[in-house]
Design goal:
alpha/beta, 341 residues, 2 domains, Isopropylmalate Dehydrogenase, 38% helix, twelve-stranded mixed beta sheet
């Protein structure tokens, strides 16, 4: 953003065209108050939006089509058409064409956030198996964006309800997790979380809790040695350097006892360890943020939800929060940049 008082330009990709991505985007942006805070830019197709507007009877939704790159209408919802041809839309049924539409809108948004045309972007849910192929050989958005922006590493950070949970490992089989939980990786993820809490969330001295890998955090070596051999030495080393890092804590009791409320951020060792409690506590307002990238990217914390697609049943709360968070982080980064100059 050229000036921190300016409304941030926030890109939104539709995700899989047959999932709930288009529906939650339309519903979130139908609340006109959002236009006072941001200039929204949808990457996708006006045909897809018209289809869902009619199907779901969402008459409040109006938009302007962008004719020239970057020439947005600040008081309107903007749509960038990312393909010309008609794509058949079959809500609830994955297709190669709908996955292709998701990829084209993602590629255009990446291009425009990279060159500063937009300030941040929100990605709608994709069908990873339908998209996977030569053009998208990745396990999901996070891996793809880490590659696209030449980041050595990134952190999948779930945020919502004053809860921020970062993952040491993401979309990998459970049997592979112990081999990936190395001292280097644990330290890197803690450092990425600490940096993000400072620069993206404006927390000057973040307090971070680290969860153990094994039941009861290894029970002092009785149920696995990763805590004593890998996690604890990293925590102690960072603590000795003056950082507010604590743990490793047994994961089950940590959330049940409400201990998460005492910390600015939490590091979980694997996907379900972090996401089961997170989604239980913050599902309708939860947001996935990719920390560690040079650009700001958020997404709602739900998938394509084919079972309810096209039925006007999708809750847009998570998408709305993803848009707000992208705007907040873009503003925080712009402020920090202005202070350094």
């Amino acid at each position: 953003m050229s000036h921190h008082q300016e409304k941030p330009k926030i890109g939104i990709t539709l995700g899989d065209l047959n999932g709930i991505g288009p529906e939650v985007a339309i519903k979130a942006l139908s609340d006109h108050r959002i236009l006072q805070m941001i200039t929204p830019v949808i990457y996708g197709s006006s045909r897809v939006l018209s289809f869902y507007k009619k199907l779901l009877n969402l008459e409040d939704f109006n938009y302007s089509q962008v004719k020239n790159k970057g020439q947005f209408f600040p008081k309107s919802i903007n749509v960038v058409n990312c393909w010309e041809e008609a794509i058949e839309i079959t809500p609830g049924k994955p297709s190669a064409a709908s996955a292709r539409g998701a990829l084209l809108s993602l590629q255009r948004a990446v291009e425009e956030v990279r060159d500063g045309t937009i300030d941040a972007f929100v990605t709608g849910p994709i069908d990873k198996s339908a998209m996977h192929g030569d053009e998208f050989p990745f396990t999901g958005h996070t891996q793809y964006l880490t590659h696209e922006f030449n980041a050595t590493e990134s952190l999948m950070l779930m945020t919502g309800q004053d809860l921020r949970v970062g993952l040491v490992t993401e979309h990998v089989p459970l049997k592979d997790v112990p081999g990936l939980v190395s001292k280097e990786r644990v330290e890197l993820k803690i450092r990425l979380l600490e940096l993000s809490l400072k620069s993206d969330f404006g927390i000057a001295k973040p307090k971070i809790a680290v969860l153990g890998l094994n039941p009861h955090a290894g029970d002092n070596g009785l149920i696995g040695g990763e805590e004593n051999e890998t996690i604890k030495p990293v925590v102690n080393d960072l603590k000795n350097k003056g950082k507010l890092i604590f743990g490793p804590f047994p994961a089950d009791g940590f959330f049940a006892a409400g201990q998460h409320k005492k910390y600015d951020g939490i590091i979980a060792m694997y996907h379900d360890q972090g996401l089961v409690p997170f989604k239980s506590l913050a599902f309708e307002t939860g947001v996935n943020f990719t920390a560690g990238l040079p650009v700001v990217r958020t997404s709602p914390d739900h998938g394509t939800a084919y079972n309810i697609a096209g039925k006007n049943l999708a809750d847009e709360g998570s998408m709305r929060q993803a848009i707000y968070l992208a705007a907040d982080i873009a503003k925080n980064r712009a402020l920090q940049l202005a202070e350094k100059q």
